[in-house]
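INTERNAL AUDIT FORM
Audit reference: QA-55
Scope: verify that the stored structure record matches its stored sequence.
Auditor: D.O.
Record contents follow.
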Amino acid sequence: MDKLQIQLTAILNLLNIKIFRVLLFLIIGIVMYSAMYSNVKPEKLNLELFSVAEQTIRSPITIEDKESTEKSRREAVEQVKDVYSVKKEYTQNRVDLVTSIFDSVNEVNDEAEEKINQKKKDALDNNEAEDTAAKEPTTNEKLAALKTKLTESETRSLSDQVFITLLQSANEELAVAKDLTVTAINKVMDSRIPADQVENAKKRLEEELKYTSLNSDLKDAVIEMGRYAVVQNEFYDSDATEELRQQAMDGVEPVRILEGQILVDEGQLISRDIYKKLQLVGLLESENSYKPFIGLAMIVSLILFAFYFIFNEMENADKKQKYLLIFSIIFITSILLMKLVSIFEEFEYSEVGYIFPAAMGAMLIKILINERLALFQTVVLAISGTIIFNEGITGTLNVTVGIYILASGLAAILFLQKQNQRSKILQAGLFVSVINLIIIVSNIFLRNSQYSGMEYGFYLIAAFLSGITSAVLTIGLLPFFEAGFGILSTLRMIELSNPNHPLLRKILTEAPGTYHHSVMVANLSEAACESIGANGLLARVGCYYHDIGKTKRPQFFIENQINMDNPHDKLPALTSKNIIIAHATDGAEMLRKHRMPKEIIDIAEQHHGTTLLKFFYHKAKQNGHDVKEEDFRYPGPKPQTKESAVIGIADSVEAAVRSLAHPTHEQIETLVRNIIADRLQDGQLGECDITLKELDTVADTLCETLKGIFHSRIEYPEMNKQKVKQA
């Protein structure tokens, strides 16, 4: 054990150097990364095209099949028909064209008649008697005049016979022909006329005009005009077509290969399409993806950063390195144990993660260090468990096991919050088992899965084993950590408070008055420490041993002087001073020899601080000795913790109150506050972090406790009779 202590001390000294702390963090990171490496490594399958699959293969990830998505989009675009729109204005344009031809014919006829009338008038005015009929414009002249009023397209597209027939027709006939033609054009062009249906539309117009009452020549003329007027009115709309195609493309959902989707069934031929999918999800040997490893490195780095931050913020510098090493050992042990348990997953025990003793690390760290680190360790283990126990599931993270580990650790921490006896650890294990079972059953119900009675039995056994194993391992490992690191845990303090401890039996048998005094001080100190949030149990146990040094010379201390003279009455003040002061250093030395925890040794050394032995100092001065005040002070050191400060105050208070014959409540309160004030004025509380407000709380608590101890008693008749007899 001595060699182990030396080695641990050497390691702790190394951890004071920054580079060695960084090295420890790197070791933790390497262990975590190595434990989870194989679980994030993409599965590679040696499969060949057109071979037969030997097993059912599922996709390990969710990924978009871009090639299939693009194919689906192309198919959607191909299904979109071209959009053709009807130009409604074309109907009116062609009607206006035909109307303008008729109007032009009417204009030519009107102009010709006007010229004839004008010539007749001129002849009458000149008394001429020429033959006016010879002077009328010829048909050709009218045709030429008409063509000047029409466009080149009209004159080229329509025959001269059409124009001649129109010019030779009467106005009434032209009006009827115009109405019939316009009506027919409107009727035919009111429907869609694509390019390949123009001729059919022209024929429909012929049918409309064929059975009219017009004479044959005029009918032929208007049919030719109508055929000329009917044109294509339905045209390809590129903008509308492109918009529909885009909508069709946008409406196609990306083709995804979902996590857990079956890519190929056992015995199925691996086609090109299946082979591409296997390649896409990274299941072929030709595919090398470094992303999972980078992701794992990022998670581990984040955990290490949080780990470093938590320890860097710890206030107790003396214990920081010790806690760092303890945490590292427990954490690494938990990770390795988790990896060891996960090996059984390869034998198709996919639910083996439920057997892992998830609460072990949380309970050890809660008891040995603090609750904050226990919570941190539980969260990190839960994250690690989701990766390490991912065998037999689709994807990388087994969230169910992660929740299970998290719930187990939290349950243990909560149960042990105020229950720290060894017997309570086993109860905590049972409590964790119940929580484990609830988590498992709730998960089964959430999945709405169907399980057999044997499977339910396995889950019951797994939940029970996880909780009980955690408790058993915690109980088994605690003594090694406590002994190896010299940790004063709650359990260790409870053991030290056992009256059968050799040192306590020594006090009881050799200095019974000191033992009684220590118990009284313990009662006072524990209540006072708990009132200000300090460690009441540490104060109690420290009080039991704080005066162990008095067992060297028990008769020189007043509480042990029963039916005997005070030996100090016959000793010089300087000698008495040395004997009294020595009990603090002697006690610390005895505690060191018995390998007592440092906290207990510190209390024995510090409970008197550097206070002055006033009685012997004044006695020496009265005897005419030239003495200095510092020669009659305890060597110290002054109290460094709240517990040491409170014990020092309670020690003085108990001794002072015991010296009073019949202490009243007012006397007790005055005495307590005077002692605290004296300690403050003497500077005895300047090196610990106790505040004035806390000192006031301590004073109130001490007064209440002492009032309960020294309450007034009823004098019974027997007691009165005895007093009369004694008188």
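Auditor finding: record pair retrieved intact. DSSP finds 30 helices and six strands in the chain.
Action required: none
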